[in-house]
Amino acid sequence: MNRTRTRRAAAAVTAAFALTALSACGAADTSSSGDSDEVTIAVPSWVGAEANAAVAKYVMEEELDVKVKTTQLDESVAIDGLNSGKVDAVLEDWGGAPKKIEQYVEKKKTVVAGGDLGVTGHIGWFVPKYLVDEHPDIADWKNLNKYADLFKTAESGDKGQLLEGSPSYTTNDDAIIKNLKLDFKTVYAGSEAAQITQMKENYAAKKPFIGYWWTPQWLNAQMELVEVKLPEYKEGCDADPEKVACGYANTPLQKYFNADFAKDGGDAATFLKNFQWTADQQNEVAAMIADEKMSADAAAKKWVEANPDVVKAWLP
Questions:
Q1: pTM of the full structure
Q2: What is the mean pLDDT of the segment spanning 94-119?
């Protein structure tokens, strides 16, 4: 619990700093015709979100002659930015700040829903298939304590390590571990990229590992991973963060816009409302960026040029 509070305090400091930085730069300037001269898109710190923003930015600048600024912000901070008007659009929200969404969308009406991204996200605990082949019952949470020793690391001490990515990600794992009485400890790699590095190293060496992971994710095409069965998610089972003892929901990923931008943003706002693609399409661009080490702009250009019919459907 102390660690949870520490992470929340650190997140609050990060949020305050990010919003202070945002206050020094404007969001979308709008002309008298209602078209945006510049659009600011918030990008959470995972490559799928970077892929969304890269493709949207490329098309808006090349086809709509709209200048686009992208800024990396944690999910919750990005929603605050929409409320303040310092951010115009968030293209991939996993529902990590429901109270803020309720406040800004339903009460203050400073933020509006922008529709589905077209991608359904799912978080879970995953192990490599070679481990399940060796221990078929390991993919059920009820048996994890029996295998906790397999996952011990220097960082986890006498408990099994549950590998996490960034501390900023939405996770119920500390509560799940506590409430299911599991002999595990969350250990943070620090970022999506760092987690991927550890997973790839373990996978290549066929070492046991278990981690918080998600779909869609480009790496899933390169590794055979099996989701561990946690208690079934039911509506409301995660309402109290301290009492969560269930798995994660399937989440249709959402777009959100600053209300003024949605109303007065002209072709830019219409385009972003229309912007929708599949998990496979997102993974294709994400893999170019993260695996092939292409720049986001180069990856977007390559994908857009190869998918003109998809792009055409987005244009105003």
A1: 0.80
A2: 94
With CA atoms as reference, report the closest residue to 168 among 77, 49, 52. Answer: 77
Predicted pLDDT of residue 34: 40
pLDDT digits (tens, 9 = 90+) for 43-87: 998 999 999 999 999 999 999 999 999 999 988 899 999 999 999
Token pair in block for residue 52:
């969304």
Q: Which of 21-25, 234-238, 287-291, 297-301 has the lowest mean pLDDT?
A: 21-25
Distance (Å, rounded) from C-alpha 212 to C-alpha 257? 29
Hey, what amino acid is at 171? T
* Burial class of 298 by CB neighbour count within 10 A (0 to 12, 13 to 18, 19+): middle
Q: Indicate if the alpha-carbon torsion angle 269, 58, 49, 42 is positive or negative.
A: negative
